[in-house]
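Section 5: illustrative case.
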């Protein structure tokens, strides 16, 4: 059970670990990896975590967490900057009451304890079905280590059907997930830049067109029109391999059950070497034709540049 205090709004959630994706592995449905029975209390000043076997107080400050919060949508994106955060939020979260602090079970892989980046994105259901918290964990070399997805529902409510009835590892499931993304998506975005980069807020109208040609190649055009300025267009091409979409330039998207996907660079170290920014993305298509996205952008030093919330509809 999770008790949330999100800027004065008290809500009790029941948490379950929905899926785990390890780099180089398929989507997991190991029962042990689906257990999350730990109490977490979200405060304005950060996270503290308590469990029956271990107690750890983590009152965080700006040196340990960088957060982008969207109060109207209740969405947030944050980056953990301490190993203690990963240890508490993820290790205890995955193992729950089975965690004794000793070695992990043989059939469970714990993410790297010295990650280069741990990014959490949280999206609330537009239909009142709780929320999804998704974690990108990049290993010390800047390559994907683990993707974790937690579904947290309000106490006493039922888990929505799209999140419980899904298939894993089948060609038909992969095809359905890709087809659901194809087409034209239009919407609105809100970008909040961090204090280091001016603490500004920018809104824009957006349109994304994703197509697949007769050869199976993916073609994506992204248009963004900021208020008072012109329209910018970004073109991507790539390919699909089951649940993995790979785009030119080294960006990958892993398709997950429940209408979700998570995007990340294939190798962050290349962006750092070229002094380029990079971004991590979480998308939740809760119902056909309607989705939310959170994009967290970083500079070449690994500092959060901005967080962007997208609300889009398929047309």
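Designed sequence:
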């Amino acid at each position: 059970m999770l008790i949330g205090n999100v800027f004065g709004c008290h809500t009790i959630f029941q948490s379950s670990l929905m899926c785990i994706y390890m780099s180089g592995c398929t989507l997991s449905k190991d029962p042990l990896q689906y257990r999350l029975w730990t109490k977490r209390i979200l405060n304005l000043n950060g996270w503290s975590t308590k469990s029956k076997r271990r107690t750890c107080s983590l009152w965080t400050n700006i040196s340990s967490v960088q957060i982008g919060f969207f109060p109207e949508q209740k969405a947030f994106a944050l980056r953990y900057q301490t190993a203690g955060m990963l240890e508490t939020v993820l290790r205890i979260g995955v193992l729950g009451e089975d965690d004794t602090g000793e070695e992990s079970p043989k059939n469970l892989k714990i993410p790297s304890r010295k990650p280069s980046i741990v990014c959490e994105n949280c999206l609330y259901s537009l239909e009142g079905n709780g929320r999804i918290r998704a974690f990108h964990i990049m290993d010390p070399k800047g390559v994907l280590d683990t993707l974790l997805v937690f579904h947290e529902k309000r106490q006493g409510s039922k888990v929505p059907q799209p999140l419980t009835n899904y298939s894993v590892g089948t060609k038909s499931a992969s095809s359905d997930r890709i087809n659901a993304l194809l087409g034209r998506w239009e919407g609105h975005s809100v970008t909040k830049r961090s204090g280091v980069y001016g603490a500004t807020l920018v809104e824009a109208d957006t349109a994304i067109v994703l197509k697949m040609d007769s050869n199976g190649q993916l073609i994506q055009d992204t248009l963004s029109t900021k208020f008072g300025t012109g329209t910018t267009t970004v073109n991507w091409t790539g390919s699909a391999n089951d649940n993995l979409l790979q785009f030119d330039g080294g960006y990958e998207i892993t398709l997950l059950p429940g209408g979700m996907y998570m995007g990340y660079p294939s190798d962050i170290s290349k962006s750092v070497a070229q002094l380029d920014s990079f971004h991590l993305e979480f998308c939740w298509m809760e119902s056909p034709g309607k989705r939310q996205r959170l994009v967290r952008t970083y500079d070449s030093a690994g500092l959060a540049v901005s967080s962007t919330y997208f609300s889009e509809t398929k047309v």
